[in-house]
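Here's my example:
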Amino acid sequence: KQKLWSTKKIKEGYFQKLGINAIWFTPVVEQIHGAVDEGTGKTYGYHGYWAKDWTALDPNFGTQQELADMIKAAHQAGIRVVMDVVLNHTGPVTSKDPVFPNDWVRTSPKCTYTSYETTTACTLVENLPDILTESEQDVALPEQLRIKWEKEGRLAQEMAELNQFFATTGYPKSPKYYIIKWLTDYIKAYGIDGFRVDTAKHLEEEVWKELRKQADIAFAEYQLKQPRVLPDVQPFYMVGEVYNYFVSNGRVFDFGDKKVDFYNYGFDALINFDFKSDANKDYESIFNKYSTLLNDPQFAGKTILNYISSHDDGSPFDADRKKAIESATKLLLCPGGAQVYYGDEVARPLKIAGASGDANLRSFMNWEDVKNNANTQAILAHWQKLGTFRNQHPAIGAGVHEMISTTPYLFKRTYNKNNISDSVIIGLDLPKGSKTIPVTGVFTDGTSVKDHYSQFTTVVKNGVVVITSDFNIVLLESVISKG
């Protein structure tokens, strides 16, 4: 049985070949032990979103050593790790998983999502107890955790750590602060580089500011104690899942009766629910829109995370996986952050016989296709070429987009910030064979340039380059700029 935290694919270079610079992994805390039937048969907490004990790793995901080894391998490969975290709710109540005390959770009403209150002070669905994150009252540790920890021989240590945390921070012993302590412990223990915050809009936004504050403290503490492995120093990173946040509306999310700018509460980025529908548009419409939005002063120092598919969005772009090449081109060349959900890069099926709901989106990785299917291998090669080019050039995700010509479709991206200057020219839907590309204003005469896609190298002459390749895409970069 292969555990989640196998370092094998990292050490094989699988992620580096895709240009991945951060790995987001599922919540790994101990899940409920029982099953829930939501009308489609028994479901277990295989996905990580049904917490039973935030202080323990779920053994189905692996051991503490395996998690530490995975993170170490990622860091040695120059890859950061982002852990999914849940503060909004516990797992469902089952015969094996009693409900938390009523000073910890509410079990009704169910959210109707018509206002701020009916989105936050409620349960997401039936039988998903909602943490009373609005509470500032001192509460005791849930009895089921006290009994569990005592059986595991760690009650005294856990209680001592909690007492120290509350004494140091001055927080009341209310539910949210217990969980903030437990979540940030993973940073101290393993060197987690960032959080992907689940269900961010379903609790009071001020809570996220406190989570970020304690995460920054924990991250700094870890950095002081551990030798630096990553090639550069970056602050802790926090991206939020504010369900149905659309970047088209700017920074704010509208609850109907209240607007909230979650970027003001500790988030560096928000997941963008716009992109999967925008991906149906032509290249220029997409790229120009996102460049204009993200280069607006309101987004200074902030960004978004685009995706074509995800773990709980039942309406992905290209659900039938018939546009895997187009998906990569649009996602990886679009301004903003790019989430490559596992299997996007190899057209992993999103419709599974016998599966219901989100289980379709969480199928086994199609490694056999990667190994034996020529079409899958061609799709992967395309994602790899675009991904590595994107990773090497900040101009693509964070620069300014400018179209050069419509036919053939050529554009440039330029980035001039933080003492970094980067420029690239990209051509899409070009003729195969010989292609003449104007490069004036980006690459000067005599400059050696390379098409990253075909690896063809040439020299700029009279403001143009001639690229000969069997592909209809060109990714032009200065050879010198890469050192």
